[in-house]
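User: Structure tokens for both sequences below?

Assistant:
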Amino acid sequence: MDEPRPVLCVEDNDANFALIKLVLEKTGLWLVTRANDVVQARAALEQRRPAVVLLDLDLPGVGGLELARELKGSPAWSTLPIVVVSASVMRQEHVKAREAGCEFFLEKPFDIAVLRATVLQAATASSVS
């Protein structure tokens, strides 16, 4: 079997991170690491390039959308797929996420099968391009 692919989950809520880690790693396809905020996310990205970033929008300090704009504006990171996983269900948040370059948006609470399928789709799409 192939090695699990890295996923960076930028999530400050312990319970949300634990659930995401459990449902993704249970497939054997993914190895999920965590960043609690944008500062930790930047450091984690310097250590290892993930196949996908799962990004909460409501983070302490710098918000998730700022990180998304930063990554999508960088030639080194512009092709990295970003899946927003957020409790924000307002249409304007979806629009802002899309404008920042986020390819996918999952609302919390998310469906486990949809999370797994979305991460796989995001990783597959980025490896093709």
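Moving on to the next sequence.
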Amino acid sequence: MNTQQLMDLDHQYLVQTYGRNPIALDHGLGATLYDLEGKEYIDFASGIGVLSLGTAHPKWLAAVTMQAAKLGHASNLYYTQPYAQLAEKLCTRSGMSAAFFGNSGAEGNEGIIKLARKYSFDKYGKGRGTVITLHRSFHGRTITTLAANGQEVFHQYFFPFTEGFRSADPTMEAIQEVAGHDVCAVLLELVQGEGGVLPMDKEFVQQLAQLCEKRDWLLLVDEVQTGIGRTGTLFAFQQYGIQPDACSFAKGIAGGLPMGGFLVNEKCRNILGPGTHGSTFGGNPVSAAAGCAVLEVLDDATIAQVKEKGAYIRQSIEDMHLPCLGKTRGLGLMIGIDVAEGYNNKELCAKLNVAGLLTLTAGTGLRFLPPLLITQEEMDKGLSVFHDVLSKV
């Protein structure tokens, strides 16, 4: 099968919900991928931040293969080793107390929203279920997480949306303006991904944490994109001097297999009991084994290198002085690049993809989320394509 045949098959049998690039990826290793015709691509996207170890990492591959040969699925009616081992690793390294496993980031965020509302209901009764989110935030594509998104572009078509959300700018004054007696939690990304790779101000986050403690609101951190080493610590909240009541995770946790979930602190570990929440595929043995392999590879020393790699890529781009670009920003290997006025970020991204550098957009800029194990050679190859393409725009 060639690329055109695959595109025809897709168009004939798939609901057309994605704006795919005319690229048919077939195989790869690390941060280097190849299409059906054998063309090489440097991966600065990692499946939207999912391929934390890159493609076909040997330890990940061995863990997945071994577990698939033993037990592919069991459901949560029984105990299996991988999910319990993964929960121990996550809690030990994050300082959190307990884990819940699901399938996706949106499901993880739905879970912590439910957690916050039940915490408040158990303690205060009805009428205290509103969750404050931030403008430009993105928390998922289910009906509830669409409602939570702090971007009006997502609040269309699918009416009626779930009630109980209010959004504010990331300032204490704005939070106070939308606060009320009906609030039970604040949900935020410490680096807004889809909103444009926008890191939160550390002082604001710490003040917000203090306000949540004072008002007995749960502090919920969406770590779907920022978690599992992406920003240079296992979770981004570890760089902000806070300990959330709950944080969601997904994307990079299983290195390419579907997995998501959330972690809770000691205060919240018993809020959800039997019958209040569940997931058929949550904690799947193969995905959990993959997650264990990911965390074994991503030890503290390896994650520390993420900051160095991110700094190298950002400085290299700044030094290019390309007219179509502005400043860079981000944490670790979660990098945003401003696109200058008069240029279209989607058009620039498409040119880069076709030329052999897989990239993403975010807000009105470009976004890089390369595998955390990307090599110096792969970074330099990608940056060379980046310069060659955009210097001619």
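User: Anything stand out in the second?

Assistant: The chain has a mean pLDDT of 98.
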